[in-house]
């Protein structure tokens, strides 16, 4: 690949990534004024990682976490946002959704030069698997940010999808607790009164 070809591929990827700003999420901004877009969500999660790094277990590499969080939702360019509380929580983990996300990852990361494509795709796959300490912490932040937005906006998607505390604990709390146990303990204490 020539230097010009490399830059052409890099900018093709960056131009495609800009489309993430047009993907609207179910979660609103904290003031409830409008839905956030997936680009805003990814930026906010990177800021969450910087700010809440002290909540990660020892050995978590926050720079890797930030990289995962900046990449994790790029597949929504093709697939859209699949809210975790929609369709009783099954749509998010449905095999067809997972397959569509894999195809999207192939296409989007395939725009990059091969070395970057491998690196970015490996980070995305690691995030999706949520087995490493870095990925577990990244996943916990991805789950806690909408919780905090819902708390600030009067319930947000919890109202939209008629979510119970048990559903929140099972679909969200367990993921947060797995990567950031102290964080979930703090958040749970603030969430519990909302559900009565």
Automatic annotation (TrEMBL):
Pfam families: HD_3. Keywords: Hydrolase, Metal-binding. Gene3D superfamilies: Hypothetical protein af1432 (1.10.3210.10). It comes from the Bacteria. Residues 17-184 form the HD domain. SUPFAM superfamilies: HD-domain/PDEase-like. This is HD domain-containing protein. The lineage of its organism: Bacteria, Pseudomonadati, Pseudomonadota, Alphaproteobacteria, Rhodobacterales.
């Amino acid at each position: 690949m020539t230097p010009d070809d490399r830059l052409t591929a890099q900018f093709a990827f960056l131009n495609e990534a800009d489309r993430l700003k047009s993907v609207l999420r179910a979660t609103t901004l904290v003031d409830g004024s409008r839905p956030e877009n997936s680009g805003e969500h990814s930026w906010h999660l990177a800021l969450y990682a910087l700010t809440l790094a002290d909540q990660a277990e020892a050995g978590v590499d926050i720079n890797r976490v930030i990289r995962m969080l900046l990449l994790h939702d790029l597949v929504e360019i093709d697939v859209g946002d699949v809210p975790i509380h929609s369709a009783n929580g099954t749509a998010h983990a449905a095999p067809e959704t997972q397959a569509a996300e894999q195809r999207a990852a192939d296409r989007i990361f395939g725009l990059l030069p091969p070395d970057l494509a491998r690196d970015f795709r490996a980070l995305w796959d690691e995030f999706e698997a949520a087995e490493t300490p870095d990925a577990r912490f990244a996943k916990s932040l991805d789950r806690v940010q909408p919780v905090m937005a819902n708390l600030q906006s009067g319930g947000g998607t919890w109202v939209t999808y008629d979510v119970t505390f048990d559903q929140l604990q099972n679909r969200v709390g367990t993921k947060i607790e797995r990567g950031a146990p102290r964080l979930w303990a703090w958040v749970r204490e603030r969430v519990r009164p909302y559900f009565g």
